[in-house]
């Protein structure tokens, strides 16, 4: 009797402690996700659901017999039925779509890469969230596919408007309520002759009235869409090897609701309830083939918003069903591309004569970019960026700005890092917190100031642990000895000024104006960071340049003109260029690509729409002592 009573008390106490533990976890979860309940009764009901979900998640993870993990995410106080009702939104069309092509355009594709990740190729915008009470997954899936193919065809990655589809695609769709069909979204985009940007027509996670004025500003367009052959994973592979693809899947079940990482192989059927976008494929280390999908449930779900899901599952329909993909016409008129480009970059011309002249320049540049990319024989890609309506001469005059000094400077004869022997195989000072976000010199030749400031920001962070955005405008206005403000300059003279002034102000206090100004002595007297000296890297020696970059970011001069450099978009730049130094940038690292190509990592000052989000990988050890584009000729760095 006493033994039975003792056992009962022990079990009861254990259960009480377990419930208290769940209450504590729930309170932490509520705080983390900003959840508020209308009353105590609702809170108790949600706690019960939370407990059941957490017990299931812990049980699955502890079993350890799955190829994936679950986690207690923001959906943990929802039943699976509630989750499906609020976070999915696909519905099967009840009538035929508007004349998709009958012939699968990629059916003859034979050379298929072993892996594909369209994020690495710059064709995927950051993860978005459809919100808790809007079944708009169909809009996010369609938009992601259009964003992808538009970047592939034009080189421009633009975040497009899901809200426009929610508000304006009324045929066959129900906005946030009851879901929609991706095909109808594509049909609307074709009929509307394009889609607005997310910035211009932002997402509100609720139904709205179609804003015709915003909907008329088209940032990207498609000419048709294609439905993939059903139950054919080879066709799926051919399609995803070429572009991101809209897909539908069965999103019911707890495992998908709480998926956190790994290759998803959980049980699911073909009751299609959710739309996502396939943005790649690959094979895991244990040999499991997978599809890579982009979801619309925010970055706290899955692998930062993405999921790997089993490929070649053994079922003809696969783990999911592919629906359709968008396609841009190669015959889009140059005039339409120019209008889209003008809207994207906010370009206005003084009169029609100027517009006609700029259109001719734009067309010539786009033809060159398309030709280079279609040849496919370079280690890099070009894109139609904000410089596309400028001649090369105009670009040099406004986008560069380095000049070689004609005066001798007092330099140390001994290279301070010359004895460095332990050099990392790779370095990226961004990963070590020593690089501020990309900046933009605008239409003036002030690259020298941006290069010097980036190098100083780097060494300041390395020495103090504090990353401070410093003032380029102070150098433009005040470093007048040998420099010409917005009309060219030299990094060494910038460093000399900073030493003489005993420091440099912050960008916040002395902001960049994209124009020459008078030195503000009051602001210039505020010293946010200082240096004690500066050194030149010995000329024409990439080995010694490597030693310097292993220690800190380094200012360099290079030949920064020519169409390939101007329109560089991604990859390792190995294009033709000489040693006519006219531009300055900052080397913030180096590395080696998967195919064994050594490169320098360059921070530029042309904004984030140029290159790889403002950065460039450029060939290291090009075979000439001065380095590719002369970048090893005039390198220098500040000392703190």
Walk me through the topology.
Blueprint: H1 2-33, H2 40-63, E1 68-70, H3 80-87, E2 116-117, H4 137-154, H5 162-168, H6 182-191, H7 212-215, E3 224-227, H8 233-240, E4 245-249, H9 254-257, E5 259-264, E6 274-283, E7 289-294, E8 306-310, E9 321-327, H10 334-345, H11 352-375, E10 380-382, H12 392-399, E11 427-428, H13 447-464, H14 472-478, H15 491-501, H16 521-524, E12 533-536, H17 542-549, E13 554-558, H18 563-566, E14 568-573, E15 583-592, E16 598-603, E17 615-619, E18 636-639
Parallel strand pairs: 5-8, 14-17
Antiparallel strand pairs: 1-5, 2-6, 3-9, 4-6, 4-9, 6-7, 7-8, 10-14, 11-15, 12-18, 13-15, 15-16, 16-17
Pfam families: Inhibitor_I29, Peptidase_C1
Protein name: Vignain
Domain Cathepsin propeptide inhibitor: 26-83, 338-395
Features:
single chain; 640 residues; 3 domains; seven-stranded mixed beta sheet; 15% strand; disordered N terminus; cysteine-type peptidase activity; Peptidase_C1A_C; Peptidase_C1A; thiol protease
How would you describe this protein?
InterPro entries: Papain-like_cys_pep_sf (IPR038765), Pept_asp_AS (IPR025661), Peptidase_C1A (IPR013128), Peptidase_C1A_C (IPR000668), Peptidase_C1A_papain-like (IPR039417), Prot_inhib_I29 (IPR013201). The protein starts with a helix and ends with a strand. The protein is built from 18 helices and 18 strands. It has 640 residues and is α+β, with helices and mostly antiparallel strands. The longest helix is centred in the N-terminal third of the chain and has 32 residues, at 2-33. The chain is globular. The strands form three sheets. Strands 1, 2, 3, 4, 5, 6, 7, 8 and 9 form a nine-stranded mixed β-sheet that branches.
């Amino acid at each position: 009797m006493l033994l039975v009573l003792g056992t009962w008390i022990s079990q009861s106490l254990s259960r009480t402690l377990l419930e208290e533990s769940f209450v504590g976890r729930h309170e932490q979860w509520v705080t983390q996700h900003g959840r508020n309940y209308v009353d105590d009764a609702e809170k108790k009901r949600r706690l019960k659901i939370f407990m059941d979900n957490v017990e299931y998640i812990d049980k699955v993870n502890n079993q350890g017999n799955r190829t994936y993990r679950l986690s207690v995410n923001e959906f943990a106080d929802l039943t699976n039925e509630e989750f499906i009702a609020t976070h999915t939104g696909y519905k099967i069309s009840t009538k035929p779509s508007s004349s998709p092509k009958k012939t699968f355009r990629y059916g003859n594709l034979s050379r298929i890469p072993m892996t594909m990740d369209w994020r690495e190729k710059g064709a995927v915008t950051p993860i978005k969230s459809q919100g808790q009470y809007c079944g708009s997954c169909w809009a996010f899936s369609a938009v992601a596919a259009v964003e992808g193919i538009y970047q592939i065809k034009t080189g421009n990655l633009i975040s497009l408007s899901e809200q426009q589809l929610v508000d304006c695609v009324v045929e066959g769709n129900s906005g946030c309520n009851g879901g929609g069909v991706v095909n109808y979204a594509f049909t609307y985009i074709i009929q509307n002759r394009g889609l607005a940007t997310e910035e211009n027509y932002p997402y509100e996670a609720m139904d709205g009235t179609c804003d015709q004025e915003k909907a008329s500003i088209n940032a990207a367009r498609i000419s048709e869409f294609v439905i993939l052959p059903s139950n054919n994973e080879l066709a799926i592979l051919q399609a995803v090897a070429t572009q991101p693809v809209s897909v539908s899947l069965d999103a019911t079940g707890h495992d998908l609701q709480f998926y956190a990482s790994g290759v998803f192989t959980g049980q699911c059927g073909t009751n299609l309830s959710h739309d996502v976008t396939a943005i790649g494929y690959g094979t895991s280390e244990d040999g499991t083939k997978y599809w890579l999908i982009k979801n619309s449930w925010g970055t706290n779900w899955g692998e930062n918003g993405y999921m790997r899901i089993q490929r070649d599952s053994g079922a003809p329909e696969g783990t999911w069903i592919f629906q359709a993909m968008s396609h841009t016409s190669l015959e889009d008129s140059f005039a339409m591309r120019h209008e889209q480009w003008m809207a994207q970059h906010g370009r206005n011309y003084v009169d029609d004569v100027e517009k006609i002249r700029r259109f001719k320049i734009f067309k010539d540049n786009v033809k060159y970019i398309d030709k280079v990319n279609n040849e496919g024989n370079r280690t890099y890609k070009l894109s139609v960026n904000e410089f596309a309506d400028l001649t090369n001469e105009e670009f040099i005059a406004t986008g560069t700005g380095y000049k070689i000094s004609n005066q001798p400077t007092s330099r140390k004869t001994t290279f301070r890092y010359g004895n460095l022997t332990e050099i990392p195989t790779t370095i990226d000072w961004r990963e070590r917190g020593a690089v501020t976000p990309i900046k933009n010199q605008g239409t003036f030749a002030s690259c020298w100031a941006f290069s010097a400031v980036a190098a100083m920001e780097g060494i300041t962070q390395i020495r103090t642990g504090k990353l401070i955005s410093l003032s380029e405008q102070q150098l433009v206005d005040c470093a007048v000895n040998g420099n010409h403000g917005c009309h060219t300059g030299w990094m060494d003279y910038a460093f000399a000024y900073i030493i003489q002034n005993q420091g440099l102000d912050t960008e916040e206090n002395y902001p960049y104006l994209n124009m020459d100004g008078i030195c503000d002595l009051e602001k210039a007297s505020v010293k946010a960071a200082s240096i004690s000296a500066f050194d030149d890297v010995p000329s024409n020696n990439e080995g010694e340049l490597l030693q310097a970059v292993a220690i800190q970011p380094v200012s360099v001069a290079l030949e920064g003109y020519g169409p390939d450099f101007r329109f560089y978009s991604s990859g390792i730049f190995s294009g033709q260029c000489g040693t006519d130094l006219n531009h300055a940038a900052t080397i913030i690292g180096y590395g080696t690509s998967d195919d064994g190509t050594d490169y320098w990592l360059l921070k530029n000052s042309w904004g984030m729409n140029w290159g790889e989000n403002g950065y460039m990988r450029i060939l290291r050890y090009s075979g000439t002592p001065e380095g590719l584009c002369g970048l090893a000729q005039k390198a220098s760095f500040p000392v703190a």
